[in-house]
Write a structure and sequence with these properties.
heterodimer; A: alpha/beta; Amidase signature (AS) enzymes; eleven-stranded mixed sheet; B: alpha+beta; Arc Repressor Mutant, subunit A; 3 domains; ten-stranded mixed sheet; three-stranded antiparallel sheet; about 40% helix
Chain lengths: ~500, ~500
């Protein structure tokens, strides 16, 4: 493995901008690493080496001419979850129905990456339309966890998390609807951030659940995540739910956090997030992480958020309801898969055949759940009640943030589970998002930072840090301080303990 | 059953839903041009095509139009409202849901005095006016009916997808009795005039920018329980509104009289036969699974915003009628005739741009009304503007046109030859007041009628008319008759 691929994005950017190394060399190193390990990891569904190297060469040219870098991440490679539209690459959302679909426009996130001179090397695998917690629901096959290839990388953004964990790229963009950034990050030992809802534009993010979907960074360090956050974040007039305010100063928070203690910071441990269903090794790692926060000077108290117990059922009404409507457009009439158009069938029959074949079982399950929940006579009992729970969760957060500055919990109840282990048990699958869902429902900021390994299986555990809306910087500050303390205690970054990857099989692209 | 018998036995209940396409520059939720008649699928973008990942952004001008319409219909403007999604599958709907307003419309609880032909008004309750996006257009090819069933294939044009629409819904209208069909027509006519005065829509029924669905039910006289209603669509002209309501009343009465039940259904109006026929029967009632549109934020118009819009309301047709009746000293009967001729607003507009009321009235109710009749169009549909009429009147007033010449200028305008002054020049219609030219014509006329010339010389001034008439004929009406008269008198008196 080239040493370049081991470096952080901040480090790479520094060296590229100082012209100690070229963006082309860094990009090529990533492409070589992808070629070497992706047949085993299967994080990418689309790669465009030539386009990536061309962008890298442009960045190098500008730097050679003496132009200042377009952004702090100019020249650094990034992987994009295949749910963001890209003019020059297909956007499939892990679905058969969009196989080969080339959007005629760039997502705002895509455009901001390009404008920042960031090198998009390819698109990463995901559960179909971001519905899933293991990346096994991709029509293109599952992604494997670099820590143990027989295990899932989490989901839906397993491709983005695995690509970063496997040193294929230093950075990736994911989306979080119920935990799809944080849960895979926890399971792959990476940093994953769900910004405040409205913090990153959803324009060009193919919608799963519009009121929950939020793009965010995946990285190996807190600072790297912050750098990417600032590139992709900020107000966008094309997204009506975008917040018209400056991006919280997350880079500053990450830098400041890494050099300071947490004296005076009040940390609340969510009482509801432990007990039955939590893997003992996860709880032990979590408790160690909390004690590190104490050692850093934080005042740790237990906080109860009783409505969080209802977050999962509320989520599984709201998200499917919205998805049943958002995914109605995939009918074979205008783009994507079209089946049965043989001149004998009506448009209705073509729609039906196309949707039958174009969607996988989990997507169909959620469309049916949502269609049912929104039906006349059931709306109040399901969608209406779920929205009330959402309000209660927002109130629980508000009450908690009166008492403490941040809330913490394990990011997931268990470490990465085995491929195939939960595919036939949707409820068990859904439970892996138990701790991440409340922040999605409330719309506030939350992240997962690696908290060591579970002692019983040697797999990564995530520490979730939740902050109020638009206080993303507060979560970064805590995570950055914790990261320094953790590495000091562990004798180095967690990701550097990812085992060597034995390459078997074929890449997805 | 004849119509009188229908009314003896039943009281009609109407509910009118009018869809108005707003004439905003851009569509409801994207920056595409909102224009009629462009080549198919040329005014489209990711948002109005509903491409994956696209998002709507609300058009402020459309919201303002909606609020102005609501205010003009005496509605309350909701202090807080939002959009919902109406979910159903149809190929001309890019997202397979329509962004609409459901239980939280922007304007509600209004009422409006509909002007009727006899000069009276009938007050109709306005339940709501809400915003929504239009769908694309399907062209069903083959099969002969132009409807989806039986078609060989369909073509889709998404230029109209996302065009802003306002749906205006009445409360159930009871008590119109025999005049229900007339009221329905008067409602749509009056609404059209109101929307035109507001300047928010082209209100062209022929182009679909004003569309009406007529809900009709009957209840037996003496009952207060509404009967089962039908909803008739494809009512594409004012005349059709009246006929569709009348037909449905008669049809439902016959069904009920024979002991049958009216089926709740959507019906289709056929302009050729003036009848309605059932649309596709739905096996189950449509469940649109409305829920709040998560891609848009709620609208909470401030009181200042509403007040500002209220201040921009122009004089509305009802107010204008009251004002001109007083100003012009019209009797109720005269006012009624002007209203029925569709002339009142046109006259008022002509007066507003400087023409004397009397002449403006005269032009619109006589010559222009005749032209409209002979072309079988509404007065307002004549291709002439109040501005142009006022200019013609001004030219006559200045002595540059005679009335005969003025009619020729108007004919030119109606024929699309341009503005009044251009037509005067192009057709050489200016009054001839060149004395030399006129004097020669006078000489000729006197020579042709020596007996008349003699009478004039003998002091019979009344005989001058015959010579003036001859000169006018000889000059094709272009002579200034006053000047001719002066020249004749000067020539025949010592």
């Amino acid at each position: 493995m080239s040493e370049l691929t081991r470096l952080s994005a901040a480090d790479l950017a520094g060296r590229i901008h100082a012209r100690e190394v070229t963006s082309v060399q860094v990009t090529q190193a990533c492409l070589d690493r992808i070629a070497a390990v992706d047949p085993a990891v299967r994080a990418f569904v689309h790669l465009d080496a030539q386009a990536a190297l061309a962008v890298a060469a442009q960045v190098d040219d500008k730097l050679r001419r003496g132009d200042p870098p377009a952004s702090p991440l100019a020249g650094v490679p990034v992987a994009l979850k295949d749910v963001f539209t890209t003019l020059d690459m297909p956007t499939t959302c892990g679905s058969r129905t969009l196989r080969g679909w080339r959007p005629p426009y760039d997502a705002t996130v895509t455009r901001r990456l390009r404008d920042a001179g960031v090198v998009i090397v390819g698109k990463t695998n995901m559960d179909e339309f971001a519905m899933g917690s293991s990346t096994e629901n991709s029509a293109y096959g599952p992604t494997h966890n670099p820590w143990d290839l027989d295990r899932v990388p989490g989901g839906s953004g397993g491709g983005s998390a695995a690509a970063v964990a496997a040193f294929e790229v230093p950075l990736a963009v994911g989306t979080d609807t119920g935990g799809s950034i944080r849960q895979p990050s926890a399971m792959t030992g990476t940093v994953g951030v769900k910004p405040t809802y409205g913090g990153v534009s959803r324009y060009g993010l193919v919608a799963f659940s519009s009121s929950l979907d939020q793009g965010g960074p995946v990285a190996r360090t807190v600072l790297d995540a912050a750098l990417l956050h600032e590139v992709i974040g900020g107000y966008d007039a094309l997204d009506s739910t975008s917040i018209d305010a400056p991006v919280p100063p997350v880079v500053h928070a990450a830098r400041a956090g890494a050099t300071a203690d947490l004296a005076g910071l009040r940390v609340g441990v969510v009482r509801e997030f432990r007990g039955d269903g939590y893997q003992p090794g996860v709880l032990r790692a979590f408790d160690v992480a909390v004690s590190r926060l104490s050692e850093l000077g934080a005042q740790v108290v237990e906080v109860s958020c009783p409505s969080f117990d209802y977050a999962l059922p509320a989520y599984y009404l709201i998200a499917p309801s919205e998805c049943s409507s958002n995914l109605a457009r995939f009918d074979g009439m205008r783009y994507g898969l079209r089946l049965g158009d043989d001149g004998t069938r009506s448009a209705e029959e073509v729609m039906s055949l196309t949707r039958e074949a174009g969607f996988g079982p989990e997507v169909k399950r959620r469309i049916m759940l949502g269609t049912y929940a929104l039906s006349a006579g059931y709306y109040d009992a399901y969608y209406g009640q779920a929205q009330k729970v959402r309000t209660l969760i927002i109130r629980d957060f508000a009450a908690a943030f009166e008492r403490v500055d941040v809330l913490v919990s394990p990011t997931t109840p268990t470490t990465a589970f085995a491929l195939g282990e939960r595919v036939d048990d949707p409820l068990a699958m859904y439970l892996s998002d138990l701790c991440t869902i409340p922040a999605d429902l409330a719309g506030n900021a939350a992240l997962s930072v690696p908290a060591g390994l579970s002692d019983e299986d040697g797999l990564p555990v995530g520490l979730q840090v939740m902050a109020p809306a638009m206080a993303d910087d507060r979560a970064y500050r805590v995570a950055a301080a914790y990261e320094v303390a953790r590495d000091a205690a562990d004798g180095g970054p967690l990701t550097h303990r990812v085992p060597g990857i034995e390459v078997v099989g074929e890449a997805l692209c | 059953m004849d119509y009188d018998e229908v009314l003896e036995r039943f009281e009609p209940v109407l509910g009118l839903e009018v869809h108005v396409e707003l004439s905003t520059a851009t569509k409801m939720f994207c920056g595409c041009a909102n224009s009629f008649g462009a080549p198919p699928n040329t005014h489209v973008c990711p948002t109005c095509l509903g491409l994956p990942g696209s998002l709507p952004v609300l058009n402020r001008a459309a919201v303002e139009s909606a609020m102005r319409i609501g205010l003009a219909l005496n509605c309350s403007i909701a202090p807080w409202c939002r959009f919902s999604r109406k979910n159903y599958f149809y190929p001309d709907m890019p997202k397979n849901f329509q962004i609409s307003q459901y239980d939280e419309p922007i304007a509600l609880h209004g009422s409006w005095a509909v002007p009727l032909a006899d000069g009276s008004t009938f007050t109709v309750g306005i339940e709501r006016a809400h915003m929504e996006e239009d769908t694309g257009k399907s062209l069903h090819v083959g099969g002969g009916t132009g409807r989806i069933h039986g078609a060989n294939y369909s073509l889709l044009d998404y230029n109209r997808a996302g065009v802003p629409l306002i749906e205006i819904v009445t409360t159930p209208i009871v008590g119109a009795g025999a005049r229900a069909p007339e009221l329905a027509r008067a409602y749509v006519t009056g609404l059209r005039d109101l929307l035109r005065a507001l300047g928010v829509s082209d209100v062209r029924m022929d182009q679909g920018s004003l569309r009406c669905d007529a809900n009709v039910s009957l209840m037996p006289r003496g009952s207060s329980t509404f009967g089962t209603r039908t909803e008739t669509k494809n009512v594409n002209s004012l005349r059709s509104v009246e006929r569709a309501v009348r037909y449905e009343m008669s049809r439902q009465a016959a069904v009920l009289a024979s002991g049958g039940d009216v089926v709740q259904e959507t019906r289709h109006f056929d302009e050729a036969t003036d009848t309605t026929s059932p649309g596709r029967r739905k096996e189950t009632s449509e469940d649109y699974r409305y829920f709040p549109e998560p891609d848009l934020v709620p609208i909470a118009p401030s009181e200042e915003w509403v007040a500002r819009l209220r201040a921009t309301l122009p004089e509305l047709p009802g107010q204008r009628r009251a004002r001109v009746q007083a100003e012009w000293g019209l009797s109720d009967l005269e006012l009624r005739d002007l209203v029925n001729a569709g002339a009142l607003d046109l006259i008022a507009a002509t007066v507003e741009v400087g023409a004397p009321a009397e002449q403006a009235r005269s032009w619109w109710v006589s010559y222009l009304s005749q032209q409209a009749n002979s072309r079988d169009v509404e007065l307002a549909e004549l291709p002439i503007t109040p501005h142009q009429v006022a200019r013609v009147i001004a030219l006559v007033g200045a002595g540059e046109l005679t009335n005969t010449l003025a009619r020729q200028v108007v004919d030119g305008i109606l024929a699309g030859e341009g503005e009044p002054d251009e037509i005067v020049a192009a057709r050489h219609l200016a009054v001839v007041s060149d004395d030399a030219e006129l004097a020669a014509a006078v000489e000729q006329a006197l020579a042709a009628q020596p007996d008349v010339a003699e009478k004039i010389r003998g002091g019979k001034v009344a005989a001058v008319g015959a010579i003036v008439g001859a000169v006018m004929r000889a000059t094709g009406g272009q002579a200034d008759a006053h000047r001719v008269r002066e020249l004749v008198l000067a020539r025949c008196t010592p």
